[in-house]
């Protein structure tokens, strides 16, 4: 494999095995399967078997690992995949890009970006006023799992080829560092190892808050998941207006697994999602983010 994204995808799957994120229990149940669903267990196990053949890599047997640990590891590996790919697309999307795993424990929040800096002031007001806090709630505060943001440009960089700006114009342009603004949020990536119904809706709520509370350009809003069940993928992927698209960590392997061990309904649902461009492979994500 010579293609950058193909190599990164292969490495991403390899790291899932090596970090004990994608594992099997002693009973042969994959770590991304719902143990209460026969269909989920069958599809998830088949995906693991296909990836083992592709990777020539043994899968670890681990009986107990917390969902929170799996989720954090999946976020980190998603961030690593994006770092390995997206910054190399300078011919399609030039810029100085930073890719970070955010989450609730990071000091960096959405209010640290140009489109959402007003939320810091709003948060300060609600902290001081209980009645205002009760009226507004805290739904506007969003901490995406992974973010991609673009650094601002000095005038010397903007004017490198010819004089584009001076002191009399473009005094409020967000990308101009001289205007004293904050970095531009380019993408919000929600990384969900699995999609139980409540967690799936959290991603949708985050997306709606990012849409509703922004000033200026809307960032890309995407979800990356390892959920094996097409109906659960559909609960988030179907419809438009909030999430750009859902990206599966191994869509090609999922399609094959569902055809081999899934029900007719599962096959039909998956075809609807793929043909409707609501579910794509993780290898599509870097190029989609270049738009």
Helix-strand layout with pairing:
Blueprint lengths: L3 H15 L19 H18 L11 H19 L11 E5 L16 H11 L1 H7 L9 E5 L4 H4 L25 E9 L4 H16 L7 E6 L4 H8 L7 E4 L2 H11 L2 H12 L3 E3 L3 H5 L2
Helix pairs in contact: 1-3, 2-9, 4-5, 7-8, 8-10
Molecular structure report:
The chain is α/β, with parallel strands linked by helices and 291 residues long. It contains 11 helices and 6 strands. The protein has helices at 4-18, 38-55, 67-85, 118-128, 130-136, 155-158, 197-212, 230-237, 251-261, 264-275, 285-289, and strands spanning 97-101, 146-150, 184-192, 220-225, 245-248, 279-281. Helix 4 packs across helix 5 and helix 8 packs parallel to helix 10 (264-275). The longest helix is centred in the N-terminal third of the chain and has 19 residues, at 67-85.
Features:
single chain; 291 residues; 11 helices; globular
Dominant shape: globular
Radius of gyration (Å): 21 Å
Distance between the termini: 25 Å
Strand proportion, as a percent range, falls in 5-15%
* Structural class computed from helices and strand pairing: alpha/beta
Helix and strand run:
HHHEHHEHEHEHEHHEH
Number of DSSP E strands: 6
Poorly predicted runs are none
Order of strands in the sheet with most strands: 1-2-3-4-5-6
The total of helices stands at: 11
Q: Helicity range of the residues?
A: 40-55%
Round the mean pLDDT to the nearest integer and report it: 91
Query: Largest sheet at a glance?
Result: 6 strands, mixed
């Amino acid at each position: 494999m010579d293609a950058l994204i193909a190599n990164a995808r292969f490495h991403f799957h390899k790291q899932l095995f090596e970090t004990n994120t994608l594992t099997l229990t002693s009973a042969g149940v994959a770590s991304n399967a719902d143990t209460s669903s026969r269909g989920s267990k069958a599809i998830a196990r088949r995906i693991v078997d296909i990836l083992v053949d592709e990777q020539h890599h043994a899968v670890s047997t681990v009986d107990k690992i917390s969902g929170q640990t799996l989720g954090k590891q999946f976020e980190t590996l998603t961030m690593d995949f994006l770092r390995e790919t997206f910054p190399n697309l300078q011919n399609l999307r030039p810029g100085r890009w930073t890719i970070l795993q955010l989450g609730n424990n990071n000091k960096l929040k959405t209010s640290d970006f140009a489109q959402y800096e007003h939320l810091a002031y709003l948060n300060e007001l609600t902290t001081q006023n209980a009645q205002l806090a009760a009226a507004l709630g805290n739904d506007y505060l969003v901490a995406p799992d992974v973010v991609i943001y673009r650094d601002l440009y000095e005038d010397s960089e903007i004017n490198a080829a010819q004089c584009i700006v001076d002191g009399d114009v473009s005094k409020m342009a967000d990308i101009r560092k001289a205007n004293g603004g904050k970095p531009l949020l380019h993408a919000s990536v929600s990384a969900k190892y699995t999609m139980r119904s409540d967690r799936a809706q959290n991603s949708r709520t985050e997306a709606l808050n990012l849409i509703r509370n922004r000033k200026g350009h809307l960032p890309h809003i995407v979800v990356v998941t390892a959920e094996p069940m097409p109906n659960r993928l559909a609960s988030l992927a179907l419809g438009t207006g909030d999430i750009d698209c859902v990206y599966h960590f191994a869509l090609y392997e999922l399609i094959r697994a569902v055809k081999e061990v899934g029900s007719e309904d599962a096959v039909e649902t998956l075809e609807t999602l793929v043909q409707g461009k609501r579910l794509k492979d993780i290898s599509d994500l870097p190029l989609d983010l270049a738009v």
